[in-house]
Amino acid sequence: QDILKRNNHIAEHNRQLFRHHQHTVINLVSSPGSGKTTLLVETLKQLQTEYPIGVIEGDQQTSLDADRIKETGVPVVQINTGKGCHLEADRVQLAYEQLALPDSGLLFIENVGNLVCPAHFDLGEQHRVVIISVTEGDTKPLKYPDIFHQADLLILNKIDLLPYVDFDVAQCIDNARRIQPNIDCLQLSCRSGDNLQRWYQWLTSKVTSLE
Amino acid sequence: QDILKRNNHIAEHNRQLFRHHQHTVINLVSSPGSGKTTLLVETLKQLQTEYPIGVIEGDQQTSLDADRIKETGVPVVQINTGKGCHLEADRVQLAYEQLALPDSGLLFIENVGNLVCPAHFDLGEQHRVVIISVTEGDTKPLKYPDIFHQADLLILNKIDLLPYVDFDVAQCIDNARRIQPNIDCLQLSCRSGDNLQRWYQWLTSKVTSLE
Ligand SMILES: Nc1nc2c(ncn2[C@@H]2O[C@H](COP(=O)(O)OP(=O)(O)OP(=O)(O)O)[C@@H](O)[C@H]2O)c(=O)[nH]1
Ligand SMILES: Nc1nc2c(ncn2[C@@H]2O[C@H](COP(=O)(O)OP(=O)(O)OP(=O)(O)O)[C@@H](O)[C@H]2O)c(=O)[nH]1
Ligand SMILES: [Mg+2]
Ligand SMILES: [Mg+2]
Ligand SMILES: [Zn+2]
Ligand SMILES: [Zn+2]
Predict the structure, then answer these.
(1) The domain that contains B171 carries what CATH number?
(2) pLDDT tens, position by position, B1-40
């Protein structure tokens, strides 16, 4: 319990720091392989000419995700958690200082692929976005409720695969709304580009609301 | 650290208990939604006439997975971990006592969907099987190495979806072998039934080697 208290204390500091620098901070969470990095790469290509953007990557091992972000030209710092299964506020604070981003714009934090622990570790972000791939099944919000309870937006990704899986979109959204009645929902595909515009609009609405 | 020591102590007790009752115990781990329960349901339908089988289910919330197992007629106990993101040996011991299975045969433990923590919590099982869905990407063994390091068998599931995703089967197996050189690998689809026979043969070889 002391770990959570200490973490939440540092997260509060982060939140003030982010607000001071007018950064809109998004914490991206999902199961491993739902498409966080793929979505980020597409998003950076589209928005980096409109806003300054930075990325903090979290993974147990490797810099594979940061390498994909680097290819877009956007500044990125990779955190390796070793045996840890989630990012914590203290390491995010250090990574943020390392990035030394110009004021205003967007900061994405890609968390470790895990539907459980990231729900309990506040990083200081303004928005938490949870991604479900339609290949994972439509009952995830009921089975892993905490992370949905804490999310502002649910993205259903890989909708190009809907014809080949048993996934009931309406049922999944209904399941998520049972856990978090106010959750926004977007359906998209990073592969086909389907409905990515709606995601860019959601992001823009969050950035402009900060200014 | 004390948590791990206590857990490993109880796991050792479990292992002796399982051996005493001649149960072949398999710990199934994966990301959320890779197909653990679907694989189990198919397997129980096929093998329950050949061996006595029992199942222990682990999830944060709900009995949705245990309900799917119950429909096959095989005895099952559901453990809900609440805020916990992995099963531990003490609760598995209680569930095992609750199942009160006849001697010999198979016990499956479906762990909580998580590629990190389950690697560090021994439950007393003889075999650990890790499942990757081909929709998750082929770099998972490098990014989440601990769980592959501890596995006897890697199953690549949902191969019916290969035509629609970027997944390099040979590369993924090579990545897994870099982490665990002796790991066995099977490719299958629970949906099409493709190559499930190889999985049944692998299981049978483990049961008979115990007798
Ligand atoms: N068909 C399809 N595949 C996708 C889509 N988005 C991502 N993928 C694939 O899904 C796999 C995993 O994507 P990533 O972006 O690496 O997933 P991630 O959530 O960042 O994974 P981790 O960081 O390891 O947790 C890759 O093979 C991608 O090509 C999509 O919209 N449709
Ligand atoms: N196309 C396809 N879909 C599959 C296959 N196996 C499972 N699925 C689907 O994948 C989704 C998740 O399957 P589950 O068996 O519930 O996955 P799980 O690993 O038990 O999930 P958790 O217990 O929540 O971690 C469901 O929609 C299944 O229908 C397969 O071989 N091919
Ligand atoms: Mg990623
Ligand atoms: Mg399951
Ligand atoms: Zn964790
Ligand atoms: Zn855990």
Answers:
(1) 3.40.50.300
(2) 899 999 999 999 999 999 999 999 999 999 999 999 999 9
Measured CA to CA, the distance from residue A54 to residue A23 in angstroms comes to 10
Instruction: Show the domain range for A16.
Output: 2-210
- pLDDT band for B208, please (50, 70, 90 cuts): confident
Q: Counting every residue, how long is chain B?
A: 211
Predicted confidence band of residue A195 (pLDDT cuts 50, 70, 90) = very high
How many DSSP H helices and E strands does chain B contain? 8, 7
Based on the structure, what is the number of domains in chain A? 1
- The rounded Å distance from CA B35 to ligand 4 centre is 7
Using DSSP's 3-state secondary structure scheme, residue B25 falls into: strand
Evaluated on CA atoms A168, B172, B178, B35, the torsion sign reads: positive
Ligand 1 atom with the shortest distance to the CA of A112? 25
Q: Write the DSSP symbol of residue B73.
A: T
Chain B contact set for A87 (CB, 8 A): none
